[in-house]
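Summary for the steering committee. One of the milestones for this cycle was to obtain a three-dimensional model of the protein with adenosine-5'-triphosphate bound, which we needed before selecting residues for the alanine scan. The sequence and ligand used are listed below.
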Amino acid sequence: MSVQSAQKAGPADAKVTPMMAQYIEIKTANPDSLLFYRMGDFYELFFEDAEVAARALGITLTKRGKHQGEDIPMCGVPVHAADDYLQKLIALGHRVSVCEQTEDPAEAKKRGSKSVVRRDVVRLVTPGTITEDRLLDAGANNFLAALTRLRGSSLGGDAVYGLAWVDMSTGSFQVCETDDQRLASDIVQISPRELILADNLLQEKDFRQTLEQAGAALSPVPRAYFDSATATDKLAQYFGVKTLDGFGVFSRAELSAASGILSYIEKTQLGERPPLDPPARQSGNGRMLIDPATRSNLELSRTLSGEKQGSLLATIDKTVTGSGSRLLASRLAAPLLDPEAISKRQDAVEFFFENEIMREGLRQTLKGAPDMARSLSRIALHRGGPRDVLAIATGLRAVRTAFEQTSKSAEYPAEIAAARTALGNAPHDLGAELDRAIKEDPPLLKRDGGFIASGYDENLDELRALRDESRKVIAKLQADYGEELGLRSLKIKHNSVLGWFIEAPTAQTEKMVADPGRFIHRQTMAGAMRFTTTELADLESKIASAGERALAIEMEIFDRLADAIVESGDLIKAAAHGLGVLDVSAALAKLAQEDGYVRPAIDGSRAFHITGGRHPVVERALKTSGGDAFVANDADLGPRTETDAGSIWLITGPNMAGKSTFLRQNALIAVMAQMGAFVPAYSAHIGIVDRLFSRVGAADDLARGRSTFMVEMVETAAILNQASDRSLVILDEIGRGTATFDGLSIAWASIEHLHEINKSRALFATHYHELTVLSAKLDRLSNATVSVKEWNGDVIFLHEIVPGAADRSYGIQVAKLAGLPPSVVERSKQVLSQLEEQDRSSPAENLIDELPLFATLQPAQPKTTRCVIEPALEELDRLNPDDMTPREALEALYMLKSSRLKNSDPIKN
Ligand SMILES: Nc1ncnc2c1ncn2[C@@H]1O[C@H](COP(=O)(O)OP(=O)(O)OP(=O)(O)O)[C@@H](O)[C@H]1O
């Protein structure tokens, strides 16, 4: 049965039970999410929700009662394990409304035996708004992003986009304005878990596809969320300020996106306000542009198969805190373009590179520092528990220690100095108070009590003493009863149903049964009987009331401490960020020291001069597996004269020699350098790279109807259309996905375009040896090859990049190494020698002399032959509107449209 039919029945339906009526009412108000409906110790789901959740969670689908003559499907999850189930549902992109009982069942009963306990949705859990530790990845941000589109742009172009993104678990809040060209790259750089946008935008198919590529859960919301006219007021109100001037200047698109995100947070958090930082404007122009294909091809934060392990991020991440790890990931995702800003980060790394003892001491402290930002956010949202308070206490202790540990040097680089200031300004008095207040191993939930340390509150201590005293009296009572009745096996026990009771084996309860005035029978078990006495009942109520009063005091203290923490929230957040900065700088310094990395020189030139460069991931893998050492290689793509553009290296060489590795390592070195890290090289001088492009081994994108070759060409087109003289381009085996001559021609023309038009610094690896002749005509193109040795007919890879061109690919030798049957290897050799014989007279040899250079070419004007629109026009001519009914006119229009679509464009040749 569908929930819609249940909704249609409505609460007024006579056959609907009062509880079902309540359920339907709440479900109708929350149609876009699975409703977790609290019933005792379970969250129950009904109707379609139950079917969806049972399938997703692999739990049993049962039924409960009937609705309009049909069974109501139901499934449930126990409250204590709800987080695990939530995690699964959220990971699958579902949203969940959590509906709680908002009154005691006893209260409901007072209104009549049939009245239903009041319930209300207290929270909407969505992928982008979770704050629970168990649902979050410690080392990764959990971004909720909002996207808005405005027509007419300050950047030029047709439309302008506003992006806002928030990590509710840490409070970070950023906005930027972007355009059609950058949009996909910007979203992938943010890598949001959930992306909200106006529902009308999501209906545009192409747009939707672009967004789906980014891998975020898409949540459509009403357009009104993004109203830019009221956005300023909305933001000002959220942050309790009169004007936003103090936060900076924002564009209309940015304000609209920021307002959308706040509306969504208010809706999902039902009025609770997470402590967000004021929005910080991220300038798209300040970050290296890495398009989505390049980002995934270079395996920056995930490998092509989606794993973290084996990515650049996993290889270079030596941070020891969650906030450090998140900061490192965000720096890697957005390398900078300003040499000065990069240099500041490098200074901090260099400081810890040189001060090893301080660094290691600090790292030891940081290891014990909990994730204060996330605990703070939970506390502010009233979702925090005693362990979050302990996390703040322990965190502030770490802040104090870190501050003292870094006080041994007189001069600090700016980044470390700023971090130290934040550590120094942390609310240390509050820290000391929390230290005194909270126990070392508190329970998860505050309602369990027992988390306030003894000695902190006199009243609490007294009540606890009373409770403990009573417990001692119970122990004495047990001994007395035992002695009196001669029963050593008599025990006084407690459970939640009976409270305290006396238990003895049935066979020995004769005396108690005989004195029912004193020993009141409560329960008969298999082999045992349970009793109580007035004495015991009195004691029990004393214990209970002391316990209850103690718990009430603990709750009060908790609320007071929580308020104090939230009040100092900004200082705590700043200190947590300070720890993160120290962690990242220390971690990158440690990495540099252990793996022999160097500080690159970065400036505004077009240099790209690397000596002894290595691939950080391959080098680490070789080291770990105990294989051969990685062979370091140089690259120099800088201009030959100061005014010149950068150079292109055309790399030919055998299969398996290390061409792809060399290409990628140089791209990775550029990324690492501009994120402010040291790089795997003996020395590096890099002129800022504005955009990084790569075309390396693509896979089919069948979901979007693109073959391997099509993907390759789409990526190549993007590069040739967008790369500038400040970009770095790496192209690996362009054209290999089609027939040899087509591929060779495309590769040939692409190199010429890169050299003459884009003027980018570029590395181009190819098996088309014919291309090496281009160096004679293109003055900034040099040939390089990877050296190998031949020994007894086999090939030995030296992995050394040297000037010059390869004469052959040694493909057959590599195939032999791969275990191709000997007969196939032999036959291949015969075929090869035949082909080589014919190739000597190949026309490709002479191409260089016969073809004019690219720049001198005018693009051929497409000639239009008979336009296929013509039949449609003829058809149109035959129609006489005056003779047609409106219906016939509409049909004719459909017919014309379909013939237009079938032959969509004029044929060009
Ligand atoms: N500089 C190096 N030092 C040590 N080993 C290397 C080096 N470069 C590459 N290798 C090893 O050689 C293997 C092959 O390298 P790579 O894939 O870069 O070759 P390729 O020339 O691009 O091959 P193909 O043309 O077949 O695609 C790598 O997996 C790596 O283990």
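Key point for the committee: The pocket of adenosine-5'-triphosphate is lined by residues 618, 630-631, 633, 653, 655-661, 799 (CB under 6 Å).
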